[in-house]
Structure formats: C-alpha cells, structure tokens
Write a structure and sequence with these properties.
409 residues, alpha/beta, Rossmann fold, ten-stranded mixed beta sheet, globular, EC 3.4.16.-, secreted
Length: 409
C-alpha cells in the first residue's frame, strides 16, 4: 500500500505551464469533426485531434458519455510512457465531464478561461459521466439505472473496451484511475473488473494504478467519527454529540444487519442533526459555516424538492453546481454552460438529453449500495494504490481514515 508521499512517484506533478496552450484550447471550442459511428459507439472531436468525445451504448438503451483530452506536452518515450488519467466523480450522480473537468482539473474553468493548474499539463485526461444517467449519460428506461457499484464497474469496463481496443496509441499509455468521494468505490470495483477483462484478453489496456481521494470506502467508520471530531473542534456541544452518536450507532447496526437502504436514510438524518446542532457546519471545511467558503459553495447540490432522500447531498460534490461568478450569459454557471455552449460544441448530445437531467434518479437507484463498504476490494486490488486525505473535510476525515487504514496496511 502506498502512502501519500509515494503518490508523486507515479502520479503527475502539476506544473504551471499553461500560457502557451491557452489560445488553442479556447479556439478548439469552435472545431468539430465526426470520428466514427458504430452500432454501439458514436464519437467526434476537434480538428487538431486534441479532444475526442462520444457515447458508448454499454447496454441496450444505456448510453455512457466520455470526453478525452490529449496533452500538448505529451512526450513519446517508451521508457516512460505518457499517462492517461481516468477521473471518476462522486455522487453517485455527480458529473465528471462537468464538475471534475470545468471545476477541478480540466483545461478550462467554468468561465472558459485557461486553468493554470490543469492536470492536462502532465497527463491525458479522460472524463466519464458515470454511472449511466449522470451528466450527459442517459438511459431510455428507468429500469436501466445501475443498482450497485459492481454494475457500474461492468458498464465502465465495457466503455474502456470500446475506447481502448480500437486505439493502439491509447494502449501504449498506462491508465491511472483517480477518484474522489463516492467515486472511490467506483474506482476500486472498476480496477478489479478491468484487470479481469485484461487477463481474459477482452480489454487492451495497461492499468497503472488507483488513487482514492477522500473516498467513501468505509461508511461505518466515517459516520462514527463525525460526532467526536466536531465535538473536538467545538462545532457540537455535549447534547449534539450524544444525538449524533446515537444515530451513528444505529447506522452501524443497520449496516451489520444488511439494512443498507435504512442505513442510507439514517445517514441523511444524521447530516440533518449535525447541521442543526452546529450552526450549519460546512461539510467540506469544518472551520466554516455552510455558505461561507466560496470554493465549497460550488459543490452545493441543487436537488428536486420533492425527493426528501436527497436533502443531505451537499456532501458528494454536486450533481449540479453553480458559480457565484456566473452571469446572465451562462458563462460561469455550470448547469447553463454544459447545456448551452458545451452542448452546442459537442453536437452529438441528443436534443432531448439535458446535462444532469437524470442525476437524481442515479442516487435513488443506488441507495441500497451507498452505505456498503469496499475495504476488501481495496485490499485485494493488485496495483499501486494511494489515498489522498482532505484535512478539513469532516465527512471523510483523518480520524475516520485512521480507523479505516488500519485494515488496509
């Protein structure tokens, strides 16, 4: 098991070398060329080949969207193959194509300005709207939403087979699966599924490693830590701690009894209890109140008021998020940006598909798997692994990770 210090030995170092690429990145918004169209695959890209995107029908009537960026810094060196990073967002139901790309590591931000810290400087980037129903991905029937991490991993493996098996250049690059939040559960199950497909000769891919960023791998350990941590930093008083610990113990018992949907509902209740007893502590920065941090406020989920289960969901990066810098032109507002300028650029998004239009249903379909741990999968995954810890995030915090990591040494 790699510790955080060894992350740099295989994960790109993100230098500031963006200026010379700014113009080409912006101009690429205007360029489009169809690449291929098969029975289960439709793809397109920019004329200069720096971007490709498309749909893979991973199952009949279940369509998964992907977007690949090629770095202009790419160096062809057989002794040090250029890496590809597959970014998996949280949720389930948060869009990697939208959030991970435009709000976190992609070449452009939500105002379509170049991002100096983009990971594209050191690796090619592959964003996927996973599971189906997330972002631009969609299903034609509600019964086709995945119900657990293993089904999601199977769909992702099918997508990788379609993208990599037809492209010998991609096969030369090691693929690193990088995930945050709930995406960590997708990452480890995908890693195992991909390795199985590689060994069976079905997937032509080199799996380089898996990185888990503040990942929801052991829900029981995490919820048991919330009350004590927030009491230690004076965000909860004794009464709040007692109330939070009571619900956390109930969640622990429900998980042990296999009552996973009930555990998910109790998790929602626990978040509400903590919020009401802590002056609405910021889930991502326990030193602040909710709404005080302009960065974490970008991750606030807009959910349908009729879906009570999803009141808690600020935690999992947003399904849809908006920037306070957004204006009436839609630039800066992620939802408007993706459904406006970006959808026009991509051209292959069906007219009746709205970015994020099915995201609410994705979580609902997976409610029975949300609180299921994936510690065993981390233990048996035979590739390089690294954990990234966010020190001021109380949802997945150092205290809980200390317990969880005892099982992964």
């Amino acid at each position: 098991m790699l510790n955080i210090s060894s992350w740099s030995s295989w994960c790109p170092v993100f230098a500031l070398r963006m200026e010379k690429h700014s113009l080409s990145l912006v101009l690429s918004l205007l360029l489009f060329v169809p690449l291929f169209h098969g029975s289960i695959t439709e793809a397109a890209g920019t004329l200069d080949g720096s971007e490709e995107w498309g749909y893979v029908e991973v199952r009949p009537k279940a369509h998964m969207f992907w977007w690949l960026y090629r770095s202009s810094n790419r160096v062809e060196d057989p002794s040090k193959p250029w890496p590809i990073i597959l970014w998996l967002q949280g949720g389930p139901g948060a869009s990697g194509v939208g959030i991970g790309n435009f709000e976190e590591i992609g070449p452009l931000d939500t105002n379509l300005n170049p991002r100096n810290s983009t990971w594209l400087q050191e690796a090619d980037l592959l964003f996927v709207d996973n599971p189906v129903g997330t972002g631009f991905s969609f299903v034609e029937e509600k019964s086709l939403f995945v119900k657990n991490d293993l089904e999601a991993a199977t769909d992702l493996t099918t997508l990788l087979e379609e993208i990599f098996n037809r492209n010998e250049n991609l096969q030369k690059s090691p693929l690193f699966i990088v995930a945050e939040s709930y995406g960590g559960k997708f990452a480890v199950t995908l890693g195992l599924s991909a390795l199985k497909a590689i060994e069976a000769g079905k997937l032509k891919l080199r799996l380089g490693g898996v990185a888990l960023g503040d990942s929801w791998i052991s829900p029981e350990d995490f919820v048991l830590s919330w009350g004590p941590l927030l009491k230690d930093v004076s965000r909860l008083d004794d009464n709040g701690l007692k109330e939070a610990n009571s619900v956390a113990q109930r969640i622990k018992q429900q998980i042990q009894n296999g009552q996973l949907v009930e555990a998910t509902n109790s998790w929602s209740e626990l978040e509400q209890i903590i919020s009401s007893n802590s002056n609405s502590v910021d889930f991502y920065n326990f030193m602040l109140d909710s709404g005080m941090d302009p960065v974490s406020s970008l991750a606030t989920i807009e959910v349908s008021k009729g879906i009570a289960l999803k009141k808690y969901s600020r935690y999992l990066s947003s399904l849809r998020s908006s920037s306070s810098a957004g204006g009436g032109d839609g630039v800066g507002d992620l939802d408007t940006l993706l459904n406006g300028v970006i959808k026009k650029k991509l051209k292959i998004i069906p007219d009746n598909v709205t970015w994020g239009g099915q995201s609410d249903h994705v979580f609902t379909a997976m409610a029975g798997d949300f609180m299921k741990p994936r510690i065993n999968e981390v233990l048996i995954l035979p590739v390089q692994k690294s954990k990234i810890i966010v020190h001021i995030d109380y949802i997945i915090n150092n205290l809980s990770l200390a317990t969880y990591m005892c099982f992964t040494q």
